[in-house]
Design goal:
Layout: H1 2-18, H2 28-34, E1 39-43, E2 46-51, H3 55-64, E3 66-70, E4 75-80, H4 84-91, E5 103-110, E6 116-126, E7 129-134, H5 139-145, E8 152-155, E9 160-166, H6 170-176, E10 190-195, E11 198-203, E12 212-218, H7 222-232, E13 238-240, H8 243-253, H9 296-305, E14 310-317, E15 327-330, E16 334-345, E17 350-358, E18 369-376, E19 381-391
Parallel strand pairs: 3-13
Antiparallel strand pairs: 1-2, 3-9, 4-7, 4-8, 5-6, 6-7, 9-12, 10-11, 11-12, 14-17, 14-19, 15-16, 15-18, 16-17, 18-19
Length: about 400
């Protein structure tokens, strides 16, 4: 018995030696209590749920009810000071001078070679105060870029908790929670509302292509905000969800994810894996009329010389087997790209995918495309060659996403 105890202890010590410590978000106590699957993954160093109870039903909670998703691990930076606007304009692709206080816009930023470092949302909280939200950590780069600007940059990922409330009844939940005035928020608006002894900032934004909101609160008030929403949403079908369900919704919306649908410049090991904005569907962001910004010369030069090598497209694939990570061929023979995300869409009733293709395929050559799918059939993989055609994104477009005031579902 003593020998067995010692062996068990040794194994535990060895396991602890290689374990990676994962932080817990301010909402973790509520998520852990709801978790029936014990299905967790690591998001930016935090413990986050892939699924809490049933990934299929969690998806339908987004599309037919109200879904609550913890976005606290999303990296958040406070940018503040007299030169905050000029600093953000120098960093990002879009013209920040056009972003008014109380508004949000989706943007991206590049290195000096015009390769995308990350994409994210920029919140203009006031004339000289912004919040930048993204997937990757960029504090050293932001601090270096701030030299010469009268601006303060601080990471606030740990101190600001975030929730995404998405779905047709999300507005009804907020109204029932007593957040008066939220009905006036248009898409990409933000406003501050009282909560307990502090405030909660609510933006009409999200990653599902549905009616939805994102809420940011001091981490010390996180649990009280969660409880307030869950109580108010009891009769509106509110359910907590994990990332698997959210990912399905974002694919339907045609949204891209850094280091999934494209490799960021700082993560790329191979030189041919980096992407310019035009190569991942973000060329519309580039504002060539504003002053100089990171990567401007390289991006415009690539356009002038026709040096853009890739294009990100939406695909509709025949059949109902998702083409995730499938190779894309032209005429069934020439390899021309790779699928980065794919699902059978329950809402669109289509087999859809997002793929990165080598130009001119997907750009000027869009006919006779095929995907190579390997499907498991009774303990054996079967190769399926399925036709694919380039289609516009989003795959699913819901009128309720932009209706103002929102519908009372």
């Amino acid at each position: 018995m003593a020998k067995a105890t010692k062996s068990t202890s040794a194994r535990r010590d060895a396991q602890a030696h290689i374990e990676m410590l994962r932080l817990e978000t301010p909402f973790h106590p509520r998520l852990e209590a709801l978790s029936q699957q014990n299905d967790w993954y690591t998001w930016a160093g935090y413990k986050a749920p892939l699924s809490l109870w049933d990934e299929e039903l969690e998806y339908f909670a987004i599309r037919s009810q109200a879904a609550l998703f913890d976005i606290s691990p999303m990296v958040k930076y406070r940018i503040e000071g007299p030169d905050a606007e000029a600093f953000c304009n120098r960093l990002t692709l879009r013209d920040v001078a056009k972003l008014k206080p109380g508004r949000v816009h989706y943007t991206a930023w590049c290195d000096e070679n015009g390769h995308v470092l990350d994409d994210g949302t920029l919140f203009r909280l006031s004339a000289d105060r912004f919040r930048l939200c993204c997937q990757e950590r960029h504090l050293p780069w932001l601090m270096d870029s701030a030299i010469g600007f009268d601006v303060e940059v601080e990471e606030e990922t740990e101190t600001i908790a975030g929730l995404a409330l998405q779905g047709p009844t999300s507005f009804a939940v907020l109204r029932a929670a007593g957040l008066d005035g939220v009905e006036r928020l248009k898409p990409f608006d933000l406003a501050t509302f009282p909560h307990k002894r502090g405030t909660v900032t609510i933006s009409r934004t999200g990653f599902t292509g549905d009616l939805g909101y994102e809420l940011f609160v001091d981490a010390r008030q996180a649990l009280s905000l969660w409880d307030r929403l869950m109580e108010a949403g009891r009769v509106h079908g509110i359910r907590a969800i994990g990332y698997t369900a959210l990912n399905r919704a974002r694919i339907e919306a045609g949204f891209i994810v850094a280091n999934a649908d494209f490799v960021t410049a700082e993560h790329a090991v191979r030189a041919d894996r980096v992407r310019m904005p035009d190569e991942i569907g973000l060329g519309w962001m580039v504002d060539r009329e504003k002053g100089h910004f990171n990567g401007r010369r390289a991006i415009l030069k690539a356009r002038e010389k026709g040096a853009l090598r890739h294009v990100l497209v939406g695909l509709e694939v025949e059949g109902n087997v998702p083409a995730e990570h499938a190779i894309v061929y032209h005429k069934g023979k020439r390899e021309v790209g790779l699928v980065s995300a794919a699902i059978w869409s329950p809402t669109a009733k289509r087999n859809i995918a997002i793929a990165s293709l080598d130009r001119p395929y997907g750009d000027t050559v869009t006919d006779d495309l095929w995907v190579e799918i390997y499907a498991m059939r009774e303990l054996r993989y079967v190769k399926l060659m399925k036709r694919a055609r380039v289609v516009e994104r989003p795959f699913v477009k819901l009128a309720r996403r932009s209706a103002t005031p929102p519908g009372d579902f």
